[in-house]
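stage 2 :: seqdesign
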C-alpha cells in the first residue's frame, strides 16, 4: 500500500505538471502588435514571439544553470500570474529624449521544479509597443541562500532566415571594436562569439535587435549561432571560467531585450533600455552638464610654433583652454604630451607601472592652477586615466579631482564585462557622483541604459572609430553607417569626432599627428547629429578649425536632446536623423561610399516658419573633401528638403523658428 500511495502521488504530480504545460502564458503589447507566449515541456521553458500576427521566433528556450542543482529545466510548472499595465513618466538628464513616457504590459510568472531540490524562480516579462524584455528573478528560498550561475543559454529560434549585422569577436576580453559582418542567419559562422546589439532584418520588413538592459552585478551577455539557433553566453569570471555570476539571493538577471518594428528607425528612437533601468539615483543633478570637449591626443597635441615650451604644463593646456573659451567648447581634456600621461606613472606605453598615481600630476603641471584658470574662462577641465591606475586608488583620486575642480574623466582600457568588471564600473560611477564627476568609458562594453540611473555616465566607446585613422585605413563612411543600426541601438556612442582634414579614399594618408579622415567634411559634421553622444569630441587641433567652413556648426550643436526622429533610414546605405533641442531642430544625414539624393519631409516641425542653415557637400568634394556649401533657406512643415549627398558624404541642417 505505501508503494501504491507513492505511485499515485507521483502520478498526480506528473498530471499537474502536464496540465500546467497546456496553459501557455501570453503577454501582448499595449497596441497588440507584439505577443510573447511562454510554455513548458519535458525539457524546460520555451517561448514564441509574433509581430502583427506573424511568428518571428518559436520553440525558443529559456535556460539558466546553477552550480547548485544544475540546469533549471526539469519538471517545471508555471503558476498562474496576472498581466498588468505599467506606465512610467521620467526625465532623462542625458539622452536622445528629455521626457520619456513608458508603457508596457508586464507579467511575473512563478516557475518551480516539481522534483529534485524543488528550486523556484520568477520570470518577469514586459512587452512594449516597440519590443519586449524578460529577466530571471531568483528569490531567497529554503536551502538556497547564495547562487553561482554557470551559464544562461537562452535561445532565439527565428523561423525565417533574417539578414544579420553583427560584430564577431575572438573572445570575451575585448575592446568591442571591429568591422561588422553582414550575412544571412543560415550563412553566419557557427560557434563564433558575437557582440550585442545584433540587428536582424526579416524578409517581411520587420527588424529585430537583440541586446540587454540594466547590467548590474551580473556578467555581460553575448550571442553565438549553435545548431543553427542563436544562443546567449555569459562572460566568465577571471580565472574561474566555470562560474559566470556569484550572488546572494534574492538576485535578478539583466533584461534580455528584443527591440522590434517594421520601421528600422523605431529601433533608434526607442527608450526601451532606459525604461528597464532604475530611476535616477543622483539627487542633485545641477552639476551634470553635457557638452563638447577637446581631446588633443588625437591630433598629436598640436600647438603653434610660437608657444613657449609646449608639454605637460600650464601653458600648453591654457592654449587649448583659450580656444575652448573663445569658441564655445565646454571642456578641455588633459591627456598626455610626448606619449606620457599627465599623471605620475612609471609604466610604459600608457600602461600603469607599480607606482602609477593618477591623483598626482607630473612635475611641471600645476593642475590646481589649470583648473582655476579654466574655470575663470568658463571652461571645465577633464582628464584621461587608465582604469588599472585609477581603480586601486579610486576614492583618493576622485577626492583630489574634486579639490582641484576637475569636472570629469575618460576611464580607459577595461576590455572586460565579467561580473567583477561590471561591478567595478558601477562603483566608479557611484564614487564619481559623490565627487561631482562625469564619466566617459573607453575600452568598454556597450551601454545598457544605466545612464538613467547614473546620469553622470555621459558616453561609452565600444566602436571602431576615428582614433584608428592615426594608424590605419579601417574606418570609412561605410563603417560609420553601420553604427546607428548596431552599437548605437544600445545607447550613447563615443567617437573621436571633429577631424577637419577630410580626404577621399585615394588621397587619404596615415598621419599620427594631424590625422586625416575618410569622407567629406559634411559627413563629419553630420556625425554630431547622427550619433547619440552627450560628450561630443572636438578632437582636432585649434589650427584645423579656426576660420574653416563648418566650424560654426560645431560651436552650436547640442549634445543632449529633447526629441529624436529618424526621418530616413536603410541599414548599410543611409540614415537621416532629426533631433530637437528646445525650439531648434538639427538634421544630420550620412551615406556610405555611394552618392545619393534624399527627399526629406519636414512634417515633424511645428506650425512656424523656420530658418534653415544648410551645410552640403560641394560639387568638387571628389577632389577636395573639405569643401562645402552653406545656404540659408526658409522652410515649413510642408517643405520637402532635397539633400544631395556625395559618396562618403553628408549634410547637416540647423532649423530655428523665425519671429513673426
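stage 2 :: out
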Amino acid at each position: 500500500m505505501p508503494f501504491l500511495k507513492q505511485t499515485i502521488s507521483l502520478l498526480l504530480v506528473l498530471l499537474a505538471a502536464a496540465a500546467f504545460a497546456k496553459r501557455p502564458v501570453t503577454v501582448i503589447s499595449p497596441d497588440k502588435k507584439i505577443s510573447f507566449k511562454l510554455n513548458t515541456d519535458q525539457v524546460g521553458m520555451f517561448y514564441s514571439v509574433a509581430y502583427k500576427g506573424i511568428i518571428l521566433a518559436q520553440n525558443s528556450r529559456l535556460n539558466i544553470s546553477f552550480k547548485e542543482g544544475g540546469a533549471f529545466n526539469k519538471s517545471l510548472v508555471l503558476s498562474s500570474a496576472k498581466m498588468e499595465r505599467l506606465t512610467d513618466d521620467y526625465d532623462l538628464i542625458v539622452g536622445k529624449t528629455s521626457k520619456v513616457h513608458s508603457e508596457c504590459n508586464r507579467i511575473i510568472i512563478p516557475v518551480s521544479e516539481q522534483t529534485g531540490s524543488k528550486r523556484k524562480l520568477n520570470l518577469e516579462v514586459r512587452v512594449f509597443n516597440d519590443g519586449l524584455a524578460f529577466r530571471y528573478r531568483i528569490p531567497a528560498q529554503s536551502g538556497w541562500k547564495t547562487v553561482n550561475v554557470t551559464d544562461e543559454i537562452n535561445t532565439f529560434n527565428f523561423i525565417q532566415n533574417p539578414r544579420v549585422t553583427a560584430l564577431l569577436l575572438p573572445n570575451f576580453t575585448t575592446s568591442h571594436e571591429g568591422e561588422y559582418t553582414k550575412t544571412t542567419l543560415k550563412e553566419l559562422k557557427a560557434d563564433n562569439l558575437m557582440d550585442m546589439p545584433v540587428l536582424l532584418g526579416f524578409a517581411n520588413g520587420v527588424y529585430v535587435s537583440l541586446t540587454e538592459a540594466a547590467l548590474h552585478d551580473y556578467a555581460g551577455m553575448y550571442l553565438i549561432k549553435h545548431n543553427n539557433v542563436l544562443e546567449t553566453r555569459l562572460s566568465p569570471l577571471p580565472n574561474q571560467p566555470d562560474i559566470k555570476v556569484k550572488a546572494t539571493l534574492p538576485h535578478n538577471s539583466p533584461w534580455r531585450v528584443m527591440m522590434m518594428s517594421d520601421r528600422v528607425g523605431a529601433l533608434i528612437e526607442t527608450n526601451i533600455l532606459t525604461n528597464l533601468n532604475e530611476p535616477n539615483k543622483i539627487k542633485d543633478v545641477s552639476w551634470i552638464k553635457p557638452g563638447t570637449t577637446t581631446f588633443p591626443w588625437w591630433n598629436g597635441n598640436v600647438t603653434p610654433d610660437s608657444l613657449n615650451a609646449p608639454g605637460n604644463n600650464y601653458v600648453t593646456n591654457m592654449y587649448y583652454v583659450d580656444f575652448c573659451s573663445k569658441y564655445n567648447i565646454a571642456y578641455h581634456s588633459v591627456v598626455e604630451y610626448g606619449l606620457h600621461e599627465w599623471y605620475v606613472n612609471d609604466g610604459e606605453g600608457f600602461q600603469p607601472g607599480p607606482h602609477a598615481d593618477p591623483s598626482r600630476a607630473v612635475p611641471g603641471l600645476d593642475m590646481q592652477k589649470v583648473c582655476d584658470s579654466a574655470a575663470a574662462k568658463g571652461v571645465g577641465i577633464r582628464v584621461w586615466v587608465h582604469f588599472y591606475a585609477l581603480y586601486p586608488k579610486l576614492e583618493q583620486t576622485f577626492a583630489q579631482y574634486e579639490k582641484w575642480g576637475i569636472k570629469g574623466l575618460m576611464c580607459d582600457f577595461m576590455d572586460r564585462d565579467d561580473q567583477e568588471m561590471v561591478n567595478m564600473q558601477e562603483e566608479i560611477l557611484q564614487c564619481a557622483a559623490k565627487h561631482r564627476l562625469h564619466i566617459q568609458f573607453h575600452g568598454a562594453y556597450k551601454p545598457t541604459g544605466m545612464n538613467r540611473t547614473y546620469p553622470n555616465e555621459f558616453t561609452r566607446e565600444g566602436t571602431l572609430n576615428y582614433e584608428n585613422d592615426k594608424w590605419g585605413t579601417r574606418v570609412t563612411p561605410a563603417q560609420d553607417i553601420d553604427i546607428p543600426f548596431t552599437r548605437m541601438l544600445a545607447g550613447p556612442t563615443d567617437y573621436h569626432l571633429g577631424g577637419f582634414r577630410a580626404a577621399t579614399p585615394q588621397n587619404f594618408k596615415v598621419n599620427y599627428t594631424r590625422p586625416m579622415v575618410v569622407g567629406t567634411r559634411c559627413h563629419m559634421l553630420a556625425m554630431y547629429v547622427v550619433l547619440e553622444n552627450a560628450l561630443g569630441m572636438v578632437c582636432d587641433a585649434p589650427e584645423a578649425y579656426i576660420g574653416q567652413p563648418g566650424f560654426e556648426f560645431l560651436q552650436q550643436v547640442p549634445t543632449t536632446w529633447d526629441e529624436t526622429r529618424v526621418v530616413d533610414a536603410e541599414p548599410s546605405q543611409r540614415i537621416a536623423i532629426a533631433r530637437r533641442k528646445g525650439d531648434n531642430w538639427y538634421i544630420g544625414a550620412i551615406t556610405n561610399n555611394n552618392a545619393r539624393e534624399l527627399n526629406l519631409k519636414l512634417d515633424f516641425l511645428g506650425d512656424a516658419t523656420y530658418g534653415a542653415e544648410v551645410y552640403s557637400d560641394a560639387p568638387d568634394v571628389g577632389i577636395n573633401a573639405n569643401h562645402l556649401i552653406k545656404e540659408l533657406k526658409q522652410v515649413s512643415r510642408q517643405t520637402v528638403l532635397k539633400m544631395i549627398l556625395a559618396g562618403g558624404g553628408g549634410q547637416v541642417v540647423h532649423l530655428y523658428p523665425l519671429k513673426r
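stage 3 :: structure notes
- The CA atoms of residues 75 and 545 lie 67 Å apart.
- Confidence is low (pLDDT under 50) at residues 1-21.
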